[in-house]
Amino acid sequence: MAKWLITLGIVLIALGLLWPLLSKLGFGNLPGDIRIERKGFTFYFPFTSGLVLSLVLTLILWIFRR
């Protein structure tokens, strides 16, 4: 369990460091990402970006487990 938590922490840190690069590629603005902007309020839910990220991580982990 500790090994998985450490791996998850490293992946999250790497994503945090790479986020400016990914946003320049349009990763945070994919069709299907929900963004509501009103005066004094902004709500952002990266639905499609989360799905793409989940698929990529699943494929990477699946490849390394084989």
Q: Can you offer a commentary on this structure?
A:
This protein has helices at residues 2-24, 47-65, and strands spanning 34-38, 41-45. The chain is elongated. It has one domain. It contains two helices and two strands, in the order H-E-E-H. The mean pLDDT is 85. The longest helix has 23 residues, at 2-24. Strands 1-2 form a two-stranded antiparallel ribbon. The protein is an alpha+beta fold. A hairpin with a 2-residue loop joins strand 1 and strand 2.
Q: Give the total of beta strands.
A: 2
Low-confidence segments: none
Q: Please tell me the overall pLDDT.
A: 85
Distance between the termini: 20 Å
- SSE pattern: HEEH
Query: What helical percentage do the residues reach?
Result: 55-70%
Number of helices: 2
Shape: elongated
Strand order of the largest sheet: 1-2
List keywords for this structure.
elongated; 64% helix; 66 residues; two-stranded antiparallel sheet; alpha+beta; 15% strand
Secondary-structure map:
Blueprint: H1 2-24, E1 34-38, E2 41-45, H2 47-65
Short description:
This protein is α+β, with helices and mostly antiparallel strands.
